[in-house]
Amino acid sequence: MGKTFAFHSYKGGTGKTSLVVNLGATYAKQGANVCILDFDFRAPSLNVLFKAKPQFWLNDYLEEKCGMIDTLVDQSERLGLRGKFWVGFANPSLEALKDIMSKDRKWEVRALSKTLSGKKEILKEKLVDYLIYDTSPGAQYSSINALAGADLVSLVMKADEFDLEGTKELAKGVYEALGRKSGIVLNKIPLEQIAAAGGKEKFGKQIEAEVGLPLVGMIPCMCELMAFGGKSIYAIEKPEHIFSRSVGEIAETLKGM
Amino acid sequence: MLHIYNTNLCMCSAHKLSYSLGADLHKCGLAVSSRGTDPILVDLLKKMNRNMEVITRKLDKLIELQRSPSGPMLRPGVSLPDDMPLDVTTLLTLPDHLRKSALALSTLREATATDLSKETGRVRAVESDYLNQLVSMGLVRKKRKGRDVYFYVET
């Protein structure tokens, strides 16, 4: 049975999408079958990176207009990956964004059920080794639905006070309450901040103690990543880059969790 | 016209709502005992008052849950307002053992205790007990099909 990860954060802009895409590509490069799902229905972005126009969006699946498998598009051949690399896209149209914001709790009950049964369908039908959800930041219904279906939740955060305080709340109020195994990925960390804390290890321990969750990995801040965001998959195009190597370390840590 | 100004439902006791309504009725001179008031209007206000009482009862129940020593967690034996759906926010308030059953049932949509025990890996009798606790809390429904009892989440 494959593993399911969900990447979530308290605030937006923490780098979840880049991490999800690069992590998925890292596993697929190693020969694993991977599926990544854009559950960020309020700000979909995977369609930009993959320049995709799928026949069905994940929104269609939640509306019961198609099966989960119908939404998946294999990108492995185009990207030259050894394993399969399935991607499920969220609809970025304004109409779809407005529609998702108008849903009531009854709809969310069905959405939870569809999210959970969709996961089961993917793992069974596509023989996927890693299913990875990219989610909306904060306590959005679609995000928490995805977290409920995940084996492991990775909380992506920057190490500023805004993120730290909000992340602590999420860890206590959502992850712990859902009973999901969770960990932190520190992203966009200025090297000065690591140095001021007395090194990478000490800095990691400090954050672990504050949030109360184990550290999965740490990625330093790199301006060039911002410039190439949404254009390149570093794990494929620049495998020796520090970002790709950091994602590789995270991939190994997650395998063992 | 009735106004309830800036009522913070989380902070105040729900009784404040009833008080506020009564005060507004008096201000408008439309109390039930008022002289020569339009009976249709009085009827309408009585209906509104009854609805407000239902709302205050539900709110009091929720506030009581929120303030319980075990925090906002729902417990067996506590019945929820009729319209509380089993969405993920409700799941967050369930204890671990019931959340596992509720999540498995959400995945299967409709299942017998035997189906669910295959999903959770727990024995059928345990699953049956947990499902019936969820039924008594008003989160799950059950129906009979021949000799089998099916549990389901209403959507």
Overview of the structural elements:
- The complex is a heterodimer of chains A (257) and B (155).
- Chain A is of the alpha/beta class and 257 residues long.
- Chain A has one domain: P-loop containing nucleotide triphosphate hydrolases (Rossmann fold), CATH 3.40.50.300.
- Chain A is built from 13 helices and 8 strands.
- Chain A has an 8-stranded mixed sheet with strand order 3-4-2-5-1-6-7-8, with helices on both faces.
- In chain A, strand 6 (152-157), helix 8 and strand 7 form a beta-alpha-beta unit.
- The longest helix of chain A has 21 residues, at 105-125.
- Chain B has a 3-stranded antiparallel sheet with strand order 1-3-2.
- Chain B is mainly alpha-helical.
- Chain B has 2 domains: 15-67, no CATH class; 88-152, Orthogonal Bundle (Arc Repressor Mutant, subunit A), CATH 1.10.10.10.
- Chain B contains 6 helices and 3 strands; from the N terminus they run H-H-H-H-E-H-H-E-E.
- In chain B, strand 2 and strand 3 form a beta hairpin.
- Chain A binds chain B through residues 105-106, 108-110, 112-113, 116-117, 120, 141, 144-145, 148, 173-174, 177-179, and chain B through 85-89, 91-93, 96, 99-100, 103, 106-109, 153-155.
Number of domains of chain B: 2
Corresponding CATH architecture of chain A: 3-Layer(aba) Sandwich
What is the number of helices of chain A? 13
User: Percent range for helical residues of chain A?
Assistant: 40-55%
- Highest CATH level, the class of the largest domain in chain B: Mainly Alpha
Q: Whole-number average pLDDT of chain B? A: 75
Overall structural class of chain A, as computed from helix and strand content, comes to alpha/beta
What is the alpha-carbon Rg of chain B in Å? 21 Å
